[in-house]
Design brief:
Oligomer: single chain
Shape: globular
InterPro entries: HIF_prolyl_hydroxylases (IPR051559), Oxoglu/Fe-dep_dioxygenase_dom (IPR005123), Pro_4_hyd_alph (IPR006620), Pro_4_hyd_alph_FE2OG_OXY (IPR044862)
Pfam families: 2OG-FeII_Oxy_3
Keywords: Dioxygenase, Iron, Metal-binding, Oxidoreductase, Vitamin C
Low-confidence stretches: none
Strand order of the largest sheet: 1-9-6-11-4-3-2
Distance between the termini: 28 Å
Radius of gyration: 17 Å
Protein name: 2OG-Fe(II) oxygenase
Organism: Aequorivita echinoideorum
């Protein structure tokens, strides 16, 4: 009993996380600008590019890891799964913030998030990801999808690469601006990545999952 009271006294409200929760409750998605600072984006982008240049990425597939199929007519990105246990210094910054969010969501919303999976993603010019839902017929553990953009500051609307989220009422186009994070309900909102018309679109994408 004393321990429970102590934990309650320890709780400090986080205005940013509260805004995310309010957004998810109201519209099932949240767009957060500057979730990562420009300095954090720089080190994460450098980490991504170092591994991309070392040819460690692979062509993305559709389906989950037990039922993968490569289909360039559906998606065209290249990915590299992240390993938190062996994270470099840049990735430790990323996971620290994500874990703070997960702990807050579990404590305030009782979501029961027990697992997470994230990968780097690079979309070269001309690639895209057609409209889809982030869940599988044989696996419904994904609860929240998270996209963190690592592009350069000069990303233009003319470059394309918008994330389009489809609600019951409208389609929302979201530019992949550096430091911006988009969080949405994996099993509810269909979405797509529009064609990249110039440059390369860089991000970290992942899911918060129940067991």
């Amino acid at each position: 009993m004393t321990e429970e009271l102590f934990e309650q006294l320890e709780f400090i409200e986080n205005p940013l996380f509260e805004t995310i929760i309010d957004d998810l409750l109201a519209k099932q998605y949240s767009i957060v600008n500057d979730f990562f600072s420009s300095e954090e984006v720089d080190v994460l982008r450098h980490s991504l590019l170092a591994k991309y240049d070392a040819d460690r990425f692979k062509k993305s597939a559709i389906g989950n890891r037990t039922n993968e199929e490569i289909d360039k007519t559906i998606r065209g990105d290249f990915i590299l799964w992240m390993d938190e246990a062996n994270a470099n210094e840049a990735e430790k910054i990323f996971f620290k913030k994500i874990n703070e969010l997960v702990n807050y969501l579990n404590k305030t919303c009782f979501l029961g998030i027990l697992q997470k999976e994230f990968h780097y993603a690079v979309y070269p010019t001309g690639t895209f990801y057609k409209r889809h839902l982030d869940t599988f017929q044989n696996d419904d553990r994904r609860k929240l999808s998270i996209v963190c953009y690592l592009n350069e500051d000069n990303w233009l609307r003319e470059n394309g690469g918008e994330l389009t989220i489809y609600t019951e009422k409208e389609a929302i186009d979201i530019l992949p601006l550096p430091g911006r994070v988009v969080i949405f309900e994996s099993q509810v909102l269909e979405h797509e990545v529009k064609v990249i018309k110039a440059s390369e679109r860089m991000s970290i994408t992942g899911w918060l999952k129940t067991r």
